[in-house]
Amino acid sequence: MDDEFYIDETTFKIAELIHKNKKMHFSEIHRHIGKPKETINRRLKFLVSIGLLVKERQGNKMYYMINKEKIHVYEKLMEIQKAIEQLKQAIN
After folding, report:
1. Residues contacting residue 1 through CB under 8 Å, at least 6 positions apart
2. Can you tell me the mean pLDDT for 21-35?
């Protein structure tokens, strides 16, 4: 994977969605997020690369789950999201 860092609204939404649903496959994530498949794929690869998500193949579907050993990464990501929202409100 290249060195790009994908922390944006889509990344936050994907992490929250998977955390809420415990386990999701790509097409479910794509359907809920509504962004292009390549965008979803890049964010999922990023979240796997930082250890936040783990993936598991079941048949022809790849499932993504929050890595329970890295739950602190998810919590930190949500803190960053909250800080960004507060900053946006302060600017407006």
Report:
1. 45, 46, 49
2. 95
Distance CA 42, CA 54 (A): 15
Q: How many other CB atoms are found less than 10 A from the CB of residue 23?
A: 13
- CB atoms closer than 10 angstroms to residue 56: 11
For the chain, what is the total number of helices (H) and then of strands (E)? 4, 3
Question: Residues 66, 18: contact at Cβ < 8 Å?
Answer: yes
Domains of the chain: 9-91 (1.10.10.10)
Whole-angstrom distance, CA of residue 37 vs CA of residue 91: 32
Binned at pLDDT 50, 70 and 90, residue 6 comes out as low
3 pLDDT band (50/70/90 cuts)?
very low
Query: Which helix or strand (DSSP H or E) is residue 6 part of?
Result: none
| pLDDT score of 31 | 96
